[in-house]
């Protein structure tokens, strides 16, 4: 239990400039060992910039990032073997087969012999390229297969932390599920996952904790549950017109109820789901319902409420 | 070691790319072959603006200083500015060369040439070789075989021959004639022919108006035979001295043009005397043709440095594919990454060089090295020099590849070392075809150094020594250039990797 909550990555006041442009503005948060941490943000929020610092490929202007108590710095080559980065863009040799790519990068990280063979086969299975595809030139792969190979290469040296930069962009639903399954499998073996995306559904379905990044700043960082509770659940319903007389009663029982523009239409927002309460009320008062629609909270709405903008534009 | 892993991968990728592999090995050779077959005989020979006179020397006699007159004539032509003399070995060859139009004319000194020149004299008993326009060649046993299709050139060659013969025969005849002045027979003749007038005061003694010189001398000697002979000789000497004084700018007894005209030998004239070499090679591939001695080193060097483009291309492709970033974010050290990318280029470059040299030797009869070379010499030529060249090529490739962000930049950046340097370095047009200071400029480029050394190990026809100092120097310069480029690359890559913004 203590293991699950020990901090593996400590990010403290990171600022990164691209010229004059502040891609990251003094961000701080921690990532715990063994969790699937989501980094959610629109395009240009600074997600890739952050990951490149965490992978030791680029240097922050101020602030530090510590991995297991050691500061991550580009010239600290030893740390690199403990971190795996799945870059946003494909990064493998198109004229090598999937297997050859894995073997090459395995070699590069010092793996050899049967250990490497075993590891490669294991990865091919995890990413679903273990059939005839393993020996095909990767340039002939579909987008989804390329994404999976891109992921597989970052796994070959068994990193303690696996960082994925938008690994499902341009991927068919089948490959996307495969990738999700792979991530869960990897996480189950104790690997900490940092998952970067601008799809809120992905963060919701995969991550334990999520940081929302916008314009280079962390605007929220918490468990999914806590984030969702930042917004209200809205229920919209319409009642039959001859029950209009009951409207006053409803208004009286539910002070936060809002009358919509259309006659007989109402909406109610609440931090906890108001559905049972409303249904009970309507049944008890014998008010006939025409329609009822529940608008549950999601990260999109959290983002909207925090920034006043939509996650995807 | 990580470097070898990267290098192995790189070579694997390159071998899979059939087209590139073809370009690397087949293209250079194809170009050598095509150019070799297209280019004329003169290609690659020193364009020294010398008029070539081909001579066949069959002269068996002896002339002045116990040297055949033909050799005197050849010496004369060789010493003439702007003329080089080429000795043709046999009459058959001479006829063949003229018949095939390879030579416009060949001057032949036949076996009696010296004897005929010896017989030349102003005396009525001697051979008079002169006519209005010059010398009767047939009287001196000189013949010229001419190609009727090249009348202008053969006319010039004939004029050169005429002038040379005049300069041989004239002084010889004058010298001999002058000697004759001292001959007692000549004085006797003179004594009979020349009559001196007797002054009136002496007419009492000799009641004549004139007296022949001979009688006068006899009179003076008082019939003493020895004294008379002595007087006659004195007259001879007197005439000679008088004439010598009169023509003091000439040495009338000189018998050679230089002594006759008292001209100081112009030592600055480059004397070019060569023997005919068949530069054409044999067979349809023109095996052994001299031009391959120029073409092969030129293209070997040029294509070695063309690897900058190909290696750079692979490097840029690696960047585009994103794998370069993966390499950089791996725990592999920067020197190992560099070495991994560096080794394949060295290996390919070495392969390419040996491929071209081997193919050149087998198919084109290329001459490499000299029989006098020791094992060390061979090692310098075929190991040290190729390695130094490949080292420089690989370092250059790395830097250009690293600096180029995309293929367009690469094409732009590499055009300087691949095309411009090849041109300046003399790989495209041999130095011989370029202005005098071209070679100085060539040494600003690695190609110039490499080419200089590679040409040294593939001797051209008239060069039977190898300047190993030159090869050493080139290898050293190439290594230093490569080392500097390597350091720049290392620093640049370190910057990208560790000080990246
Ligand atoms: N090398 C760079 N030079 C200049 N600006 C950059 C560079 N890389 C990224 N940026 C800018 O920094 C911001 C963050 O980029 P990035 O981290 O890639 O965002 P994300 O991955 O969240 O989409 C963007 O506005 C982008 O335009
Ligand atoms: Mg990104």
Quickly count the domains of chain A.
Answer: 2
Return the average pLDDT of chain B rounded to an integer. Answer: 85
Unreliable runs of chain B: none
Q: Can you give the mean pLDDT of chain A?
A: 89
Q: In whole angstroms, how far apart are the ends of chain A?
A: 40 Å
CATH topology of the largest domain in chain A: Rossmann fold
Q: Helical stretch count of chain A?
A: 12
Tell how many strands the DSSP assignment of chain B holds: 9
Q: Tell me what the CATH architecture of the largest domain in chain A is.
A: 3-Layer(aba) Sandwich
Keywords:
heterodimer, A: about 325 residues, alpha/beta, Alpha-Beta Plaits, 2 domains, six-stranded mixed β-sheet, about 30% strand, B: about 500 residues, two-stranded antiparallel ribbon, 9 strands, about 60% helix, binds adenosine-5'-diphosphate, binds magnesium ion
């Amino acid at each position: 239990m203590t293991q699950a909550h020990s901090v593996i990555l400590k990010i403290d006041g990171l600022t990164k400039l691209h010229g004059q442009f502040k891609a990251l503005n003094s961000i701080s948060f921690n990532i715990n060992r063994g969790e699937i941490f989501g980094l959610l943000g629109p395009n240009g929020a600074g997600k890739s910039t952050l990951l490149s610092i965490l992978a030791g490929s680029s240097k922050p202007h101020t602030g530090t990032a510590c991995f297991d108590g050691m500061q991550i710095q580009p010239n600290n080559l030893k740390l690199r073997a403990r971190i795996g980065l799945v870059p946003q863009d494909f990064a493998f040799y198109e004229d090598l087969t999937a297997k050859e790519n894995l073997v090459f990068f395995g070699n590069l990280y010092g793996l050899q012999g049967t250990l490497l063979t075993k590891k490669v086969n294991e990865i091919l299975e995890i990413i679903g390229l273990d059939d005839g595809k393993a020996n095909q030139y990767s340039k002939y792969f579909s987008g989804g297969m390329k994404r999976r190979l891109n992921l597989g290469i970052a796994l070959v040296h068994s990193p303690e932390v696996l960082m994925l930069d938008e690994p499902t962009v341009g991927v068919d639903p089948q490959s996307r599920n495969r990738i999700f399954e792979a991530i869960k499998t990897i996480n189950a073996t104790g690997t900490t996952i940092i998952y970067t995306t601008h799809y809120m559904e992905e963060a919701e379905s995969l991550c334990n904790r999520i940081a929302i990044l916008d314009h280079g700043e962390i605007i929220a960082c918490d468990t999914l549950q806590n984030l969702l509770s930042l917004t209200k659940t809205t229920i919209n319903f319409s009642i039959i017109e001859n029950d209009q007389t009951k409207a006053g009663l409803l208004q009286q029982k539910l002070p936060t109820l809002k009358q919509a523009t259309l006659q007989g239409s109402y909406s109610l927002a609440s931090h906890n789901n108001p559905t049972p309460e409303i249904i009970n009320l309507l049944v008890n008062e014998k008010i006939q319902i025409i329609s009822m629609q529940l608008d549950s909270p999601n990260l999109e709405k959290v983002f909207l409420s925090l920034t006043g903008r939509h996650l995807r534009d | 070691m990580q470097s070898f892993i990267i290098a192995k991968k790189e070579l694997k990728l390159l071998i899979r790319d059939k087209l590139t592999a073809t370009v690397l090995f087949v293209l250079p050779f194809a170009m050598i072959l095509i150019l070799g077959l297209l280019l004329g005989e003169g290609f690659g020979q020193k364009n020294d603006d010398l008029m070539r006179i081909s001579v066949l020397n069959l002269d068996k006699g002896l002339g002045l200083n116990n040297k055949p007159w033909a050799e005197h004539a050849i010496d004369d032509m060789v010493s003439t500015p702007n003329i080089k003399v080429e000795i043709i070995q046999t009459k058959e060859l001479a006829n063949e060369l003229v018949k095939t139009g390879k030579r416009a004319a060949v001057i032949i000194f036949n076996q009696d040439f010296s004897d005929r020149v010896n017989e030349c004299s102003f005396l009525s008993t001697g051979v008079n070789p002169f006519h209005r326009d010059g010398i009767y060649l047939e009287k001196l046993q000189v013949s010229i075989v001419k190609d009727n299709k090249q009348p202008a050139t053969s006319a010039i060659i004939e004029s050169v021959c005429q002038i040379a013969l005049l300069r041989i025969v004239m002084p010889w005849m004058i010298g001999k004639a002058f000697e004759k002045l001292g001959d007692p027979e000549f004085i006797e003749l003179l004594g009979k022919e020349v009559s001196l007038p007797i002054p009136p005061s002496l007419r009492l003694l000799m009641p004549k108006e004139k007296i022949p010189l001979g009688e006068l001398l006899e009179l003076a000697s008082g019939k003493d035979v020895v004294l008379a002979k002595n007087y006659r000789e004195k007259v001879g000497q007197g005439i000679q001295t008088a004439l010598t004084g009169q023509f003091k700018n000439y040495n009338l007894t000189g018998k050679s043009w230089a002594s006759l005209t008292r001209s100081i030998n112009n030592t600055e004239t480059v004397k070019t005397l060569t023997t005919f070499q068949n530069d054409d090679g044999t067979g349809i591939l023109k095996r052994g043709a001299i031009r391959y001695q120029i073409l092969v080193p030129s293209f070997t060097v040029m294509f070695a440095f063309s690897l900058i483009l190909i290696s750079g291309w692979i490097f840029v492709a690696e960047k585009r594919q994103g794998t370069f970033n993966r390499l950089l974010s791996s725990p592999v050290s920067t020197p190992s990454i560099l070495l991994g990318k560096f080794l394949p280029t060295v290996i390919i470059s070495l392969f390419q060089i040996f491929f071209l040299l081997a193919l050149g030797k087998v198919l084109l009869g290329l001459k490499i090295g000299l029989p006098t070379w020791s094992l060390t010499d061979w090692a310098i030529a075929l190991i040290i020099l190729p390695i130094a060249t490949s080292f420089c090529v690989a370092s250059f490739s790395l830097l250009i590849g690293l600096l180029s962000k995309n293929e367009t930049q690469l094409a732009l950046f590499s055009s300087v070392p691949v095309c411009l340097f090849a041109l300046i370095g003399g790989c495209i047009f041999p130095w011989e075809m370029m202005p005098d200071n071209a070679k100085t400029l060539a040494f600003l480029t690695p190609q110039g150094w490499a080419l200089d050394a590679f040409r040294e190990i593939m001797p051209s026809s008239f060069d039977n020594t190898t300047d190993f100092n030159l090869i050493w120097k080139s290898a050293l310069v190439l290594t230093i250039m490569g080392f500097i480029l390597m350091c720049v690359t290392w620093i640049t890559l370190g910057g990208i990797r560790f000080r990246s913004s």
